[in-house]
Amino acid sequence: MSRAQEPHRPFPSFGNPFRMISRKGSNLSPKLHALLNTFEETLAGRIKKLKPAGKEDVLRLSWMRSAMESLCGIHSDIKTLITALELPVCDWDDKWIDVYLDNSVKLLDICIAFSSEISRMKQGHLFLQCVLHNLSGDSSKQLVRARSSLDGWKQHIASKNPRLDNCFAAMDGLAQTLDLPKIKNSAKGKVLMRAMYGVKAVTLLVCSIFAAGFSGSAKKMMDRHVPETCLWAEAFVDLQTFVNTEIRSLYSSGRVTVLKELEAVDTGVKKLYPIVQDGVDPVEAEELKNSTTDLEKSAENFSGGLDQLAKEVDNFFQIVLSGRDALLCNLRVGGNVSDQVRPSNNVEGPMVR
């Protein structure tokens, strides 16, 4: 996307971002080398912390919240780097600005799609609340209502969210511009573009994982090859291989969902459904009570996990939006791009309420 009130310009051809900074013959000063190394080492540390402790933690809502929290940190790190580089907006090449603005729109679209899916699952939780409410009584009518709500839950969760298609399209667009513009005469620009490459690579990985979990398919998962010269490359490949392999394994085994808390709810629903289907005799009363308690616990964990994840997705949306606003503001006034614009309280993000 081009700057405001300017006609859209096609992206320039992109080159290999790893020719920008070579170990031999580099024209970077010791200060710039130190800034870049610090950024990449910090990025490597954030990626290492993201690797789940075990396979059972892959696509657990608490892990997804941590992943989104890490993205917030990574995108804040790039703002800190820009400030440290003291790179005024007048020194930014038009093609850098176009790529940044276009990518920020795609990231906002992805956040909106994720928030939409979280909201859809939260709406499904209402069916569970109805089930639990009706099972608190013992009349046959309440059992019929509970069964109807269980049917509603299953139909709702099985439905597809069309907004996820926008998410996949946005990720494809980001992947196509992963390689960054060639930098000829700006040492600071080389550092900035190299750092932005790392940010985009990790962002794409996390978004790809989220999309696979939300969509019920691993077909759109991305396996990205990154050069070993990046200080974060080893941690990136380790995380990507571990998580992607596990998600593909889960889907290949016939799983309908790979979100752990959702899977727990689904298990509880399947256990409860045959009990309420034909009425409950005295022999099954205790089993009904235990199954209801189990479903109540899993539904509570599911709802709480969604709330926390929604908050982090909204935080990420605000960080991306504030960075975009800062750049646009400084383009208008000709200031320094490192002057950050804090989002005002009335800026509406994709928060799920």
From TrEMBL:
<feature type="transmembrane region" description="Helical">
    <location>
        <begin position="195"/>
        <end position="214"/>
    </location>
</feature>
<dbReference type="GO" id="GO:0048367">
    <property type="term" value="P:shoot system development"/>
</dbReference>
<dbReference type="GO" id="GO:0048364">
    <property type="term" value="P:root development"/>
</dbReference>
<keyword id="KW-1133">Transmembrane helix</keyword>
<protein>
    <recommendedName>
        <fullName>BPS1-like protein</fullName>
    </recommendedName>
</protein>
<keyword id="KW-0812">Transmembrane</keyword>
<dbReference type="InterPro" id="IPR004320">
    <property type="entry name" value="BPS1_pln"/>
</dbReference>
<dbReference type="Pfam" id="PF03087">
    <property type="entry name" value="BPS1"/>
</dbReference>
<keyword id="KW-0472">Membrane</keyword>
